[in-house]
């Protein structure tokens, strides 16, 4: 099992905790999910400083999030910013041989007034990105983003499932978002099992998108493991923690061990095997 740790876990600490975490994991198959923060000079500098380490490890990447909105009309300022940041992220993928890139249909607040137009524009922008990457070995993954507590849910459960079935892209399911929105996790997994290649794993109280440790919340994680092993045993697993866990490298290592034991996984870098990615972004 390959383990990916999102650099977003260290947005407030910098990347230094990585050096403390790696010995605790003691596994050369451990990699990183790079979470771009292109407007931050420190991130750019640290990314360059750690490049020699990253090149020797498995990598994946989350699409840009900060200041990015993919549900705005082509030609708008928001569209230009989103596409500029995505272009830089794609270049990062090319340089570091990264194969997966997560896409958010939207990040903004959704209302009855802007919902249908937002869906229209996000579909158009996804289509454009797919076209741009058609000659690259980089897969754009659709994530079920948004939670009711933040008022940024674009699709309900049935709509998201249908959206994924109608798009060419594979899917990343965020089980924390499923839980916070009151969706039926079993229905989502069964409906999309042939398209799900990744999961974001974290827990919460069923309302707030707090991105707690996997057993710290009201989501039944044992039930998820059962569904995962039955329907999507080859999907990659991404531990997506909140920033408050970023300094606790021992907690991260403990959850990695727990997941590996529950999934009966052994080491290895083969992308065909189930992988664990750690990501502490709160989106």
Descriptors:
283 residues; nine-stranded parallel beta barrel; 9 strands
Descriptive report:
By secondary structure, the protein is an alpha/beta fold. It has 10 helices and 9 strands. A 9-stranded parallel barrel has the order 1-2-3-4-5-6-7-8-9, surrounded by 4 helices. Helix 1 runs parallel beside helix 10 and helix 8 packs parallel to helix 9 (221-231). The longest helix has 20 residues, at 77-96. The radius of gyration is 18 Å and the shape is globular.
Quick structural overview:
This protein is an alpha/beta fold and 283 residues long.
Roughly how many Å is the radius of gyration? 18 Å
Major sheet description? 9 strands, parallel, barrel
Which percent range describes the beta-strand content? 5-15%
How many DSSP-defined strands? 9
Give, in spatial order, the strands making up the sheet with the most strands: 1-2-3-4-5-6-7-8-9
Distance between the termini: 25 Å
Helix content: 25-40%
């Amino acid at each position: 099992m390959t383990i990916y740790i999102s650099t977003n876990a260290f947005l407030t600490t910098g990347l230094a905790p990585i050096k403390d975490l790696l010995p605790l994991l003691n596994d050369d198959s451990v990699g990183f999910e790079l979470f771009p923060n292109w407007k931050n000079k420190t991130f750019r500098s640290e990314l360059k400083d750690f490049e020699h380490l990253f090149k020797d490890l498995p990598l994946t990447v989350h699409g840009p999030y900060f200041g990015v909105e993919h549900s705005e009309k082509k030609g708008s300022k928001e569209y230009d910013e989103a596409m500029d940041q995505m272009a830089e992220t794609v270049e990062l993928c090319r340089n570091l041989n990264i194969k997966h890139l997560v896409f958010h249909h939207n990040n903004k607040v959704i209302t009855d007034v802007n919902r249908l137009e937002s869906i229209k524009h996000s579909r158009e922008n996804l289509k454009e990105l797919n076209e741009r990457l058609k000659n690259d070995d980089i897969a754009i993954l659709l994530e079920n983003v948004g939670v009711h507590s933040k008022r940024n849910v674009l699709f309900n459960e049935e709509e998201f499932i249908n959206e994924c079935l109608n798009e060419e892209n594979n899917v990343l399911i965020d089980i924390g978002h499923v839980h916070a929105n009151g969706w039926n996790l079993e229905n989502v997994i069964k409906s999309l099992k042939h398209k799900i290649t990744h999961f974001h794993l974290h827990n919460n109280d069923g309302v707030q998108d707090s991105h707690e440790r996997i057993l710290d919340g009201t989501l039944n994680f044992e039930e998820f493991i059962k569904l995962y092993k039955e329907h999507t045993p080859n999907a990659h697993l991404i531990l997506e923690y909140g920033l408050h866990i970023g300094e606790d490298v021992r907690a991260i290592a403990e959850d990695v061990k727990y997941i590996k034991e529950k999934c009966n996984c052994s080491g290895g870098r083969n992308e065909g095997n189930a992988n664990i990615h750690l990501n502490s972004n709160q989106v």
